Amino acid sequence: MSTQEREEGRQIRCLIAKVGLDGHDRGAHVISRAFRDAGFEVIYSGLHRAPDEIVQAAVQEDVDVLGISILSGAHNTLVPKIVAGLEEYDAFEDTMILVGGIIPDDDREELLEMGVAAVFGPGTPMAETIEFVRENVPDRD
Amino acid sequence: MTAAESTGSDLVAELLDGKHRALARVITKIENRSPGYRDIVSRLHAHTGTADVIGVTGSPGAGKSTLVDKLAKTYRDRGDTVGVIAVDPSSPYTGGAVLGDRIRMASNVGDMDVFFRSMSARGTLGGLSTATSDAVKALDAFGKDKVIIETVGAGQNEVDIVRTADTVCVLVQPGSGDDVQMLKAGILEIGDVFVVNKADMDGAERTVAELEEMIHMRENPAAGLNTGHHGPVDDEEMAEVAIDEPDAEAWDPEVVRTVATGGEGVDELIDTLAAHAEWLRESGRIEDKARGRYAEEIRQLVRSDTAALLEEVIDARGGIEALADDVLAKETDPYSVADELVGPVRDCVDEELDR
User: Fold this and answer.
1) How does pLDDT run across B58-73, given as a tens digit for each residue?
2) Domain B12-binding spans what residues (chain A) (predicted)?
3) Which in B5, B21, B69, B167 has the greatest CB count within 10 A?
């Protein structure tokens, strides 16, 4: 490996996605900015995205991390659609899915079983989320 | 065959087979300079050369992303497939970036035949333009009819990137400055097509007039002899003109008005881009451009490879800081150090060239 290769190395890429009808993206902005400041490359989806659009963006951008922010309570319908879409493009295995927002405790387990790596509720310290990403980002060749 | 090589050839096969995942992964390898990426790009080379590559640049807020979105949509409506690479700046301190242009690709959501990819200015030493042109090759080999590179026109790096395009389109916002600003802006010299976007705003006509005047000023006086205006010139006329005045066949940049938010002027812009592509082919400039690009690419690669080799030599001599310490202690000087480091390389070159 040349010096240039060593220096340029690998960069963690994240898609921060707002999916469904909820219209509040302050949290998504805050996390995007925190990830940027942590040295990640962040792609922000914008509001009101359909699961298909999120899948398209995650596949094309080849992100390591997909952070889904949901406040509307629709996570039980939206997240499975995204998981299925990623599977369709063989992208599920090496995309780490995080869910942030208002998620009742009962639903957490279900999301984790579905393949979501972690659920971060309100008040999670930003440093904790960043640390989680750094430690658990899927290893690629 | 190493593991990296074998996954590389699988990836290339899948990319050529039309798998989006493979295309996305190849671009990631190119961006990361992952082991085996060079081999991948080498394999792709033979499959490139069919896409029209269009560079779109302009100051922040000129409406590039919105226009690119509408361009992509219009190309799709006409039956073409589209690849877009949007380059955004990254923080020089953390390397982090927010790549925000995807938000504006609203007309093309759910359409996988528009492949949109965000890239950040990660690299150094011309690394970004190399990575961008390699990513363009991936999209070209994948079979995209049109590849659009979008970048903020702020500095040298961006100019380099845009030069990897066949046709360069510069966006100007009405009221973006007086005619002195227009004279100052070096980026205006690289445009084949100028777009006054937000043409419904006050001052749009003045901006158009200023642009046209500026283009007129930079023109070779002989260019006025070309009565064919911007359209394709017939062969006879071309041959005649070429004999006594080679510059007379130069492309005369066009100014197009658009309102990207409503899609107005986009068809006209596409026609102008097509006219430029046609001119490139008919005049043979397309080969000149490609030759120039490959020459620059080879230089770039040779430079960075040589630099990497010399970095190894520096490491072997105890690292750059140790060498700097020697200079600081007045034991030696920078010229002598450079001479010692490069000397063995020079000897090899002398031997190779039989001097």
Assistant:
1) 888 888 999 999 999 9
2) 11-140
3) B69
